[in-house]
DNA sequence: ACACGTTATATAACGTGTTATGTTAATATG
DNA sequence: CATATTAACATAACACGTTATATAACGTGT
């Protein structure tokens, strides 16, 4: 068995470990969503949520708000447009600016998530983190252990079940 | 100005935020390393460190130890071989297995990092996290604030300077 | 009116991760 | 021994992020 060097090097690999744990949580959340019939990739939700909250935004505004690159937003919007989730919004005077907004379909998908799914995801994550305390490295250790013992999609599904039972 | 929805949704976007902060720290560490003449991408160091600690490992052993996909390891090793950092290791009886090990060049690069660079990176990260306390979401908020006020490469460079001065 | 600098977005190219698949070697089974 | 199954790794294809660049639109100064 190979030693796990990331645990031996203290704070040195903190960035790497944060990234790994984050990706793992995103993947497990996506697995749960897929089981609920929602196939959008994990990274798209900050964008959809922001559009839902703000109404119409341009590529650049989204990129700045989300802290991602502009071509990445362009690409995501191209896909979401093809999926019928977003559409061009009424433009102002400046023809360079291309505001977009959610379609009715997109809005109803986001609203369904906000009403039916996110509360359980949030509760499952919060509950998993509730007993965590101390330095961030220790908290990461513990989150990894928790996910090893019960992945996030299973935790959320259990939350849904409690709701159905209660 | 667009509202930052990730901060409003509590624990829901924890995975996404962990990933973002982790990537940011990795990018800033890579910037520091580049300033020291080391151009290996951030993701390669766990692999190099593991080879340095273990001697020779196969693709599958590395993939399992690092928690990444086997083709990803294959690709990384292809590049590292081209860079002269790793080479094939003496094989056993099983002709399917292709163990690799660090070259002398690779080992000396890793050792230079371990001796001269990682201690400062680790100290900078540890110092940045030293005053953090409480739930992980709050710690992430604080790390982001710390990185906003002084990026990691600048923190490490400062650590190097203190060493030079002291 | 025109020249030039800046802004907004699309596109190109690249890097880095994954899953799926193909090939070869080794092992298990009847 | 022959065949089926599994293991190990390379390769193919794709997804998703980035930086660099191209193009169009806009603003400013002369």
Oligomer: homodimer
Residues in helices of chain A, as a percent range: 55-70%
Shape of chain A: globular
Order of the strands making up the biggest sheet of chain A:
1-3-2
Largest β-sheet summary of chain A: 3 strands, antiparallel
| SSE string of chain A, helices as H and strands as E | HHHEHHEEHHH
Q: What's the CATH architecture name of chain A?
A: Orthogonal Bundle
Strand content of chain A: under 5%
pLDDT average of chain A, as an integer?
Answer: 91
* First-to-last CA distance of chain A: 45 Å
Specify the CATH class of chain A. Answer: Mainly Alpha
User: How many independent structural domains of chain A?
Assistant: 1
How would you describe this structure to a colleague?
The structure is a homodimer of 166-residue chains. The model of chain A has no long low-confidence stretch (mean pLDDT 91). Chain A has 166 residues and is mostly helical. In chain A, helix 2 (14-35) runs parallel beside helix 7 and helix 4 packs across helix 5. The longest helix of chain A has 26 residues, at 104-129. Chain A has helices at residues 5-8, 14-35, 45-54, 59-66, 70-82, 104-129, 136-149, 152-165, and strands at residues 56-57, 86-88, 100-102. Chain A is built from eight helices and three strands. The radius of gyration of chain A is 19 Å and the shape is globular. The first copy, chain A, has one domain: Arc Repressor Mutant, subunit A (Orthogonal Bundle). Chain A has a three-stranded antiparallel β-sheet with strand order 1-3-2. The interface between A and B is large, with 51 and 52 residues. The structure holds a DNA duplex (30 and 30 nucleotides).
């Amino acid at each position: 068995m190979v030693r796990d060097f990331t645990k031996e090097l203290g704070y040195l690999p903190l960035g790497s470990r944060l990234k790994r744990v984050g990706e793992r949580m995103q993947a497990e959340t996506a697995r749960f969503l897929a089981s609920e019939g929602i196939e959008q990739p994990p990274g798209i939700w900050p964008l959809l949520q922001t559009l839902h909250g703000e109404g119409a935004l341009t590529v650049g505004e989204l990129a700045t708000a989300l802290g991602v690159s502009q071509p990445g937003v362009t690409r995501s919007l191209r896909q979401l447009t093809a999926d019928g989730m977003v559409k061009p919004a009424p433009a102002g005077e400046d023809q360079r600016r291309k505001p977009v907004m959610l379609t009715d379909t997109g809005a109803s998908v986001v609203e369904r998530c906000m009403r039916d799914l996110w509360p359980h995801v949030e509760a499952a994550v919060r509950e998993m983190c509730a007993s965590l305390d101390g330095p961030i490295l220790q908290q990461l250790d513990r989150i990894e252990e928790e996910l090893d013992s019960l992945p996030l999609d299973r935790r959320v599904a259990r939350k849904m079940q409690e709701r159905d039972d209660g």
